[in-house]
Design a protein that fits this description.
By secondary structure, the chain is an alpha/beta fold. The protein is 38% helix and 16% strand. The protein folds into two domains: 9-218 and 346-408, Crotonobetainyl-coa:carnitine coa-transferase, domain 1 (Rossmann fold, 3-Layer(aba) Sandwich); 246-333, formyl-coa transferase, domain 3 (2-Layer Sandwich). Strand 3 (52-54) and strand 4 form a beta hairpin. The radius of gyration is 26 Å and the shape is elongated. It comes from Pseudacidovorax intermedius.
């Protein structure tokens, strides 16, 4: 069954994470995504290892596991954009595409004749999505940057981590490159919105996605409190500034999470734990009271939870209707009964014969479910196929381009 975007073709000029995340989302939804890579080197993240993907004999390949996380369901073509012939090939491909996605530094593609204005001239209905660090305008527009920089500059690290007066206190980035992932999702949403607009008007447009914009917007919940109160949000570790108890607790052999979002859940928690006296304590009756008096309450609950194992408390809390859970390492995540039932592990065969495991797309569509058509490709794996089927070039012409090093044809050995 064709995916919902099966009539859409995307020319993917993105590398690393934010851009490829967006184009993989489109590819998972059925779009034909043509990933343009550099000859010889390819996408930067192919080299971000170890760990490396393995072939059918268990030997390491030259492609990283990192690359495989954001490039399935795509076809790869390798074109040297520094050559006039390569630039012309990209323009010809853009004529045949609905969307172009790129994450070059501001102005870089203009030097190659591949800016929005350049490609709009050959395809007026084109949707052109640029993902950059700081956006297309402003005093920082031409500066480069990675996710880590924006977690700092955009405020996230100022609220992430333990407070300064606690052991290990200080600003901490998230382990996942959250700015990149969110920027990729914003790009996906914007592209889908632009496609809908074009369906009604026939007009293409340019999309400007900024990592800095993205991470500042991500903080809206905390920022709203700052705008309202003038108080700068601080780090709470695993606690919550507006809810108590809503945090992790140490147990006899690990940790667990308890999350009371209202007074009723707190009463159920106390009943389940045999701590009815806490409900009667005037310091803890309402959420606002518990937030003010969190220290003695958390101290009492902490002293209780550390007396038994995580498994014990999870069994006790299962009857409480209070949201709770364990803190799992990824091996335990994929043993979780719900994760197993939802089949979040996806296996595909790699072009070199080995098996690749990736994570299932979280979007569930009843009529047009996500399909896993292609494993993450080899660099230039589909060069010949794309040039012959999309641009209708002869085998002789493709070989001429390869000999001139304008394009690369993959070696699967």
């Amino acid at each position: 069954m064709a995916g919902p975007l099966s009539r859409i073709r995307v020319l993917d000029l993105t590398r690393v994470l934010a851009g490829p995340w967006a184009t993989q989302m489109l590819a998972d939804l059925g779009a034909d995504v043509i990933k343009v890579e550099r000859p010889v080197l390819g996408d930067d993240t192919r080299h971000w290892g170890p760990p490396w993907l393995r072939d059918e004999d268990g030997r390491s390949t030259s492609d990283s596991a990192y690359f495989s996380s954001t490039n399935r369901n795509k076809r790869s073509i390798a074109i040297d954009l520094a050559t006039p012939e390569g630039q012309e090939l990209v323009r010809e491909l853009a004529k045949k595409c609905d969307v172009v996605a790129e994450n070059y530094k501001v102005g870089d593609l203009k030097r190659y004749g591949l800016s929005y204005e350049d490609l709009k001239a050959v395809n007026p209905a084109l949707i052109y999505c640029s993902v950059t660090g700081y956006g297309q305008d402003g005093p920082y527009a031409e500066k480069p940057g990675y996710d880590f920089i924006f977690q700092g500059e955009g405020g996230l690290m100022s609220i992430n981590g333990e407070p300064d007066d606690k052991p290990g206190g200080g600003p901490v980035k998230t382990s996942i490159a959250i700015t990149d992932v969110l920027a990729g999702l914003n790009a996906t949403i914007a592209i889908l919105a632009a496609l809908e607009h074009r369906r009604h008007t026939g007009e293409g447009q340019c999309i400007d996605i900024s990592l800095l914009d993205t991470i500042v917007h991500f903080g809206s919940n905390q920022i709203a409190s700052y705008f309202a109160s003038g108080e700068i949000p601080k780090r709470w570790g695993n606690a919550h500034p507006n809810l108590t108890p809503y945090q992790s607790f140490r147990t006899k052999d690990g940790h667990l999470i308890v999350a009371c979002g209202n007074d009723g859940q707190f009463r159920k928690l106390c009943a389940c734990l045999g701590q009815g006296h806490l409900v009667k304590d005037p310091r803890y009756i309402r959420m606002a009271d518990r937030n003010i008096n969190r220290e003695p309450l958390i101290a009492e609950l902490s002293a209780l939870f550390v007396t038994e194992t995580t498994a014990h408390w999870l069994q006790v809390l299962e009857r409480s209707e209070v949201p709770n859970g364990s803190i799992n390492t990824y091996d335990k995540v994929f043993e979780h009964p719900q994760v197993v039932a939802r089949e979040l592990e996806v296996k595909q065969q790699h072009a070199r014969g080995g098996e690749i495991t990736t994570v299932r797309n979280p979007i569930r569509l009843s009529a047009t479910p996500v399909e896993y058509r292609y494993a993450p490709p080899l660099r230039a794996q589909h060069t010949q196929e794309i040039l012959s089927s999309v641009l209708e070039l002869s085998a002789e012409r493709v070989q001429q381009l390869a000999t001139a090093k304008v394009v690369e044809i993959a070696n699967k050995d």
